Amino acid sequence: MGFYDLSKEDRKRLVERMRKAIRRDLDSGRVEGIRRLASDKDTYVRKHAYLILGRLYRDDKESRERILDILKVLFGDEDVRVRQTAVYCLGEVGKIDADRVLDMLEAALSDEHHSVRNAVVGALKQMGEKNPKPALEFAGRFLHHPDPEIRRMIIHGVELRGRTHPEDILPLLAELQSDPDRRVRRTVVHILGQISYKEGCLEKVVSELKRWKNEKLVREALEEILDVHRRYEKFSDKSFREAKEYIEHQLGAGRAYPRD
């Protein structure tokens, strides 16, 4: 039976048992209970395990070194789920002490398994939302990594920060506007759409795009931005029509060619 097959009350009791098991391992110097939760086949059990560890790191300063030691052990585990859970937990720790986890995040980018590498995206998203400066600096170091998949993951990892503060990530995206890899460029376009529809964001994105040199990618980005405004119209600051008129006023009619 999976986590969400349980009733709400049973889920609460399960999470409390997990918290106690993790606390016991921290107090006893063991790691078996935490590892068992980190390797659970249920995604939501693993998620609650790293969230509990993250909260304990935040609230219990005396346990921080012990938690970091445990994460190093989990990060070296042969089980992919355990390593993945450890990386997600690095993101939780990174909200507070990014400098303590960046070396492991960098190593995770080269993990043999895609689910561990992809967990870096989630970890960066969490860090970037609460502790943006080190997350953005970390991302900046890998913008021109020889592996295009790492470049793509890195910019995907800062997307969440861009949804509230697009000006923070637009310079990173600008560096990749003419990336030689199509998937990287496509990710840039996708992110531009995702960071454009909240209040005050379209103006910042369009202002930046005025300075970009890759005209083809700018056109694709404008089409994506308008498509996002169409699809998310209930949640957007501007309607599709208002966004289209704003873009045409700022950049001239004909820069984007979406269907009405």
Explain this structure to me?
With 260 residues, the chain is mainly alpha-helical. It has 2 domains: 125 residues, Leucine-rich Repeat Variant, CATH 1.25.10.10; 119 residues, Serine Threonine Protein Phosphatase 5, Tetratricopeptide repeat (Alpha Horseshoe). Helices cover 71% and strands 0% of the residues. Helix 2 crosses helix 5 and helix 9 runs parallel beside helix 12. It is elongated and about 65 Å long.
Q: Give the overall shape.
A: elongated
CATH superfamily of the largest domain: Leucine-rich Repeat Variant
Distance between the termini: 47 Å
How many beta-strand elements? 0
| Average of the residue pLDDT scores | 93
Give the total of domains: 2
**Which architecture of the largest domain per CATH?**
Alpha Horseshoe
CATH topology (level 3) name of the largest domain: Leucine-rich Repeat Variant
Estimated helix fraction: over 70%
Approximately how much beta-strand content do the residues carry?
A: under 5%
Question: Structural class from helices and strands?
Answer: mainly alpha
Major sheet attributes: none
Q: Please, how many helices?
A: 15
| Oligomeric state of shown chains | single chain
Low-confidence region ranges: none
Sequence of secondary-structure elements: HHHHHHHHHHHHHHH
Q: For this structure, what is the CATH class of the largest domain? A: Mainly Alpha
User: Roughly how many Å is the radius of gyration?
Assistant: 21 Å
Summarize the structure.
The chain has 260 residues and is an all-alpha fold.
